[in-house]
Amino acid sequence: MIRVLLVDDQPLIRSGFRALLDIEEDIEVVAEAADGKECLDLVREHLPDVALIDIQMPVADGIEATRRIAADPALAGVHVVIVTNYGLDEYVFNALRAGAAGFLVKDIVPDDFLHAVRVAARGDALLAPSITRKLINRYVAQPLTTGVGSGLEELTSREREAVVLVAHGLSNDEIADRMVISPMTAKTHINRAMTKLHARDRAQLVVLAYESGLVAPRSS
Asked: What is the predicted pLDDT for the residue at 171?
């Protein structure tokens, strides 16, 4: 059973998410919170597998809540997914740096939303393809970072191939199909590449792939 905490200051949003989750046999909503402080209290009480957290909330915002969850070793099993109206902005970048496993936009379709919860519960980093493209556009417009890319020589050819496909916005299942391997093997390649490149999450792996020159931005 996947245990989920819903955190949003808008009751209607929480009700909508709960309505989708409650009909799933493998998902249980264990609690709801309306602000960041209440979120932290309930996370410690219930230890959910996934915390779906809005960015902008009273008392303590989603970024601060995420930072505190990620910093607490007792909460290592809690995977934070940021849910936002804004697509991509400084709030989202700060949330990823704070330790969020990924983020979703609130206009996501129900099937994709449910899939996202399950992906996050497995411990996989989660980035919506549209967000990945925006993330790429944001970073490739900047100069290369000095020293970025150390560790690329340690990647196997299959790990490099997996990183390139991640940088193009493909999911693990899509990467598995493209490489003609199992999803578990694809995940293994990606995790090993993240370890070798010291990438904290999938978002950082995308950034490293472009900043290092492993992947070239496509011309618009």
From this structure: 80
* Residue count (the chain): 220
Tokens found for residue 36: 């960041």
Q: Which of 16, 2, 13 is nearest to 51 (CA)?
A: 2
Confidence of residue 131 (pLDDT cuts 50, 70, 90): low
Which residue type does 3 have?
A: R
**Hey, which residues does 31 pair with through a beta bridge?**
5
Q: How far apart are the C-alpha atoms of 84 and 74, rounded to whole Å?
A: 26
Give burial (CB, 10 Å; 0-12/13-18/19+) of 146.
exposed
**Which neighbouring-strand residues pair with 79?**
50
- The model carries a pTM of 0.69
Report which of 145, 93, 114 is spatially closest to residue 50, judged by C-alpha positions. 114
Mean pLDDT value across the chain:
82
What pLDDT score was predicted for residue 218? 55
CA angle 151–200–91, rounded 5-degree value? 130
- Both tokens of residue 129? 């393809």
Spell 177-215 as b/e; 16+ CB within 10 A means b.
eebebeeebbbebbbbbbebbebebbbbbbbbbbbbebb
> For residues 82 and 189, what is the distance between their CA atoms, to the nearest angstrom?
25
